[in-house]
Specification:
Helix content is 60%, strand content 2%. The protein contains 31 helices and five strands. The two termini are 83 Å apart. The longest helix is centred in the middle third of the chain and has 29 residues. The relative contact order is 0.03. The protein has 682 residues and is an all-alpha fold.
């Protein structure tokens, strides 16, 4: 509105000045002079020269600084419940006692926007905007738009607009949960409208508390303490104060950590990890300062060289402007945080934590940051990596919850020691690894994989670890009950009887959940089983007396052929032993629950049905070598056996049931379900 008024004055002034020229030319000098004078008065710059404003001079004497509501406003610290007790002035008084209304101010553009008066209200939420008039609501939206674009209008003491904006920002955070955005906006609000400062701090801390942002709370409280030296107790949250004794910090290191405002993350949030990160960070900064001193410079000078490039090339700030100086200060903090992230990544490496933090920097100064700072940081970390301590038990538990596959690296290291360490050592180390992963939802996988690793070296240990797998699997959300891998079974079991015995142990463990008893049974699993024979000595003596003559005759006959008969007996025993059928564990269709051929739709032979059951037990995938052994044990060739099964089902399925793929035979699970009888389908 004001701009339009000024424009009208310019147009009318210029028009009257040109009109006066016509008057002079026509000889009407008096009228022309009056018109000229009126035109000059309407032109704003000439009017100010002719009629200087005393009131304006007084206002200049008390003019507000950019970023302040008005001159008497200063940072105050009042609790949020005193909103209705705050003074509200629509004007200020200068030293002469005359009223001077402060014009609206727009630091970024230099032009003002006339504020719509709004008498003081108790503001408690964004809904209070509904109490405003249409003009006040329109001005609020203009004020908000300018604020978010970095233009801070002078409210002339109408405090309601700033408070409404505060609650508006808080409401937006409730939708986005972007705490960094909220902190930035309320910081700007408190900076440019100081009377909101205490409220912004109180409400920001409440929002940080709602999302458990402990590091954010620490940072804001530290800022509050820095802004008010009388509240030095707020430094209790400062990193330097917290870790002064733990890390034996000197004064410079303590002050540095007090200025570190790092929001952190889950890894950094583990107390032991945070301590190790900060210890490495302090070591790096101390050595970095020494390196720069030897080069005849300082860490501040090097950071400012980088800051100068970022301020002028990235942000386009004018040299030594307020924004330029502020950006240098902020970039120093950013570089310290960048180094802190490097230290955190190194601690993550040491602790087997795969996820890393992003350490991207400004592209305009990328080379200067990497060569001038980060290369030195890398060298210092490499030389001092030994100061990082091994995590304690509590930390291990938390790390394994955050990274559920972290155990794989530890288990690989144990596997490398199998050739040189006793099996008992391996067993104990795996049990310890499992204990450190007790909160890990995939803890059972540790024992399953460890069982496979040790199987070739020690069968009993492999079975014990498999029992631990079953025990942990029973306690998990879903009981997977993965069988021992087929290639491992060959080295663990010699015959069908051993398979059956071990399955009984597993079944008892599932039913009783008595792991200790199962381990006792497994430790005796490979002992030779002997039948105990009891002899009745009286019957033996009676038989000897009754057939004494016969025995003597037979003894004479046997003596003559003892050598020959002896050799024949040995030969027969050897042949009997060799003729025993050695059953491969992988050819067993079902040890506990066998099904008849009648469960299938078509007339299968028992051998054909057993083969299909074997497929079902092995998730419908059977190695060719196992299938061949099955067929051989039944006096058949695997090719003809599979072909006969496929022929029976081809017309019904319009496809082959059993397919060959590389070194395995496979069955489509849906086909298998289809060929079952209705009784089994239901």
């Amino acid at each position: 509105m004001r701009t339009l008024f000024i424009l009208i004055r310019w147009v009318l002034g210029c028009f009257l000045c040109f009109a006066s020229i016509g008057g002079f030319l026509s000889g009407e000098g008096g009228s022309a002079f009056f018109v000229l004078l009126l035109g000059l008065i309407l032109i704003p710059p000439i009017a100010k020269l002719i009629f200087p404003s005393k009131k304006q001079s007084k206002m200049n004497a008390v003019a507000t600084k950019p970023g302040q509501d008005k001159v008497q406003d200063a940072p105050i610290s009042l609790p949020s419940h005193t909103f209705d007790q705050m003074a509200h002035d629509n004007f200020i008084l200068d030293v002469t006692g005359e009223e001077s209304i402060i014009p609206a101010y727009e630091p970024s553009t230099g032009k003002g926007t006339a504020v719509v008066p709004w008498n003081h209200l108790y503001i408690s939420s964004i809904d209070d905007l509904n109490k405003a008039t249409k003009a006040q609501q329109d001005y609020y939206h203009t004020f908000k738009k300018n604020f978010l674009e970095g233009v801070y209008l002078d409210l002339q003491g109408y405090f309601n607009y700033a408070l409404i904006l505060l609650y508006d920002l808080l409401a937006q955070f409730d939708q986005t949960k972007d705490i960094e955005w909220l902190e930035k906006q309320v910081d700007n609000l408190g900076l440019h409208y100081p009377r909101t400062y205490s409220y912004t701090r109180t409400l920001l801390l409440a929002k940080m508390g709602s999302i458990n942002d402990i590091n954010g709370i620490r940072r804001v409280k530290m800022q509050m303490a820095e802004g008010n030296p009388h509240n030095s107790y707020e430094y209790e949250w400062a990193l330097g104060k917290v870790f002064k004794d733990k890390l034996k910090l000197d004064k410079d290191s303590e002050l540095l950590l007090n200025k570190i405002w790092y929001q952190g993350n889950n890894f950094y949030g583990i107390p032991f990890c945070q301590e190790q990160i900060l210890k490495l960070f302090v070591c790096v900064i101390t050595n970095l300062k020494s390196d720069f001193t030897r080069e005849g410079t300082s860490i501040e000078q090097q950071f400012d060289i980088i800051g100068d490039m970022v301020a002028r090339k990235h942000f386009k700030y004018r040299l030594n402007s307020n924004n330029y100086i502020y950006s240098l200060q902020e970039l120093r903090k950013e570089l310290y945080i960048l180094i802190l992230k490097y230290c955190e990544n190194k601690v993550r490496d040491q602790y087997g934590h795969k996820r890393k933090l992003s350490v991207d920097s400004y592209s305009v100064a990328k080379t200067e940051i990497e060569v001038g700072v980060l290369q030195k940081v890398e060298g210092i970390i490499a030389a001092n990596i030994g100061i990082i301590e091994e995590p304690d038990q509590e930390t291990e538990l938390e790390l394994n919850v955050q990274n559920t596959t972290r155990w794989k690296l530890a288990l690989e290291k144990l596997e490398q020691m199998i050739p040189v360490k006793p099996v008992d050592w391996f067993l104990q180390e795996v049990l310890l690894l499992g204990a450190r992963n007790k909160k890990n939802p995939s803890v059972e996988s540790i024992f399953y994989e460890a069982s496979k690793m040790i199987a070739k070296k020690d069968k009993v240990t492999a079975l014990i670890l498999y029992l631990h797998y079953i025990d942990h699997d029973l306690k998990s959300k879903e009981f997977d009950n993965k069988p021992i891998a087929k290639t491992i079974q060959k080295s663990l079991f010699n015959n069908l009887e051993q398979v059956h015995d071990f399955e009984i142990i597993i079944q008892n463990l599932i039913e009783t959940k008595d792991l200790d008893n199962a381990i006792v049974n497994v430790r005796k699993f490979y002992e030779t089983k002997r039948r105990k024979i009891q002899l009745d000595q009286e019957l033996i003596d009676a038989a000897a007396s009754k057939y004494q003559d016969t025995v003597e005759l037979l003894n004479n006959l046997l003596d003559e052929e003892s050598e020959e008969n002896g050799n024949m007996a040995l030969t027969e025993k050897g042949q009997e032993k060799e003729s025993q059928i050695v059953l491969n564990i992988n050819s067993v269709a079902d040890v506990v629950n066998t099904s008849s051929a009648s469960r299938y739709r078509f007339g299968l032979t028992p051998t054909q049905a057993s083969l299909l059951q074997l497929f079902a037990k092995n998730n419908f995938v059977l190695p060719i070598i196992d299938a061949q052994q099955f067929a051989k044990s039944n006096g058949l060739f695997i090719g003809s056996l599979i072909e006969s099964i496929n022929e029976l089902h081809f017309e019904y399925l319009d496809d082959v049931l059993i397919e060959e793929e590389e070194d395995v035979y496979i069955i489509n699970e849906n086909y298998y379900k289809k060929i079952l009888t209705d009784e089994h389908d239901n």
